[in-house]
Automatic annotation (TrEMBL):
The protein's name in its UniProt record: Phosphate import ATP-binding protein PstB
Cytoplasm recorded as keyword: no
PROSITE patterns: ABC_TRANSPORTER_1, ABC_TRANSPORTER_2
Keyword NAD in record: no
PANTHER family (UniProt xref): ABC TRANSPORTER I FAMILY MEMBER 17
GO biological process: phosphate ion transmembrane transport
Length: 288
């Protein structure tokens, strides 16, 4: 199996102390897509869970996926780094390209895909290891051996966690609070310097204060990474994202539900002037 060829991307950097406020990334101009989905359908066995999704993922911006439960948001998210490959019977039809290359081509190594397109899950999932070893885990798996300590510190700084844990790096990651654990998982993801970060409802298990910290972190990370987030919280989508994709579930003539992308646009337009009435009905609380 051939390894996928990827373009260079910026190393993880930390703004110097006293550098001032981080600009709101939502004010950035539209960037070229780093990924494109074209007529993507996802099947579990014979069941078509998501049907014909076409949308871009813009570079160094945040894309939010919203919609009611069962509309296929997380299924589409997992298709972006081939996580669905791990589900028996799952398959993806259509095209998912990363910098123009189809990630589902037969000679593409899915491990290399996930190296460049990382994932942060709904519930914090630190390993039963020290804080240091949690962050270093991806480096070891990817056989990155140079300056491991420096890379761990950079990742923890990038996840806004360094100051809270620098004196207890040998402590178990499981001893951290829920919000800290989620930021630890983000540090573990960015330690290998991915290009894209996928976040599947990363704040659903967190309290409002921890949620605010993770949202602030997303704003900062968008300067270095492309982020795609699934969220049930429409206010969160409005706060953090540049673009929003609204999904819903349609019932066919046989009574079977299929997830469908209804509308994709700039977040401000989705929430103030949606084109499709189904989008308007959802964001105004008429259904969902």
């Amino acid at each position: 199996m051939n390894q996928m060829t990827f373009p260079d991307h910026r190393p993880l950097t930390t703004a110097p102390q006293g550098a001032g406020l981080v600009p709101d990334p939502r004010q950035a101009p539209a960037a070229a897509p780093v990924m494109n989905l074209t007529d993507v359908s996802v099947f579990y066995g014979s069941y078509e869970a998501v049907r014909n999704t076409t949308m871009p993922v813009h570079t160094h911006q945040i894309t939010a996926m919203i919609g009611p439960s069962g509309c296929g948001k997380s299924t589409v998210l997992r298709s972006l780094n081939r996580m669905n490959d791990l589900i028996p019977g799952a398959r993806v039809a259509g095209g998912v390209t990363y910098h123009g290359q189809d990630i589902y081509e037969r000679d593409v190594d899915p491990i290399q895909v996930r190296r460049r397109i990382g994932m942060v899950f709904q519930k914090p999932n630190p390993f039963p290891k020290s804080i240091f070893d949690n962050v270093a885990y991806g480096l070891k798996v990817n056989q990155i051996r140079d300056d491991v300590a420096g890379r761990v510190e950079q990742a923890l700084r990038g996840a806004a966690l360094w100051d809270e844990v620098k004196d207890k790096l040998k402590t178990s990651g499981l001893a951290l609070s829920g919000g800290q654990q989620q930021r630890l998982c983000i540090a573990r993801t960015i330690a290998v310097q991915p290009d894209v970060i996928l976040m599947d409802e990363p704040c659903s298990a967190l309290d409002p204060i921890a949620t605010s910290k993770v949202e602030d972190l997303m704003h900062e990370l968008a300067g270095q990474f492309t982020i795609v987030i699934v969220t049930h919280n429409m206010q969160q989508a409005a706060r953090v994202s540049h673009h929003t994709a609204f999904f819903t579930a349609e019932v066919d003539a046989n009574g079977v539900r299929h997830g469908r992308l209804v509308e994709f646009s700039e977040t401000g337009r989705i929430f103030t002037n949606p084109v499709d009435k189904r989008t308007e009905d959802y964001i105004t609380g008429r259904f969902g």
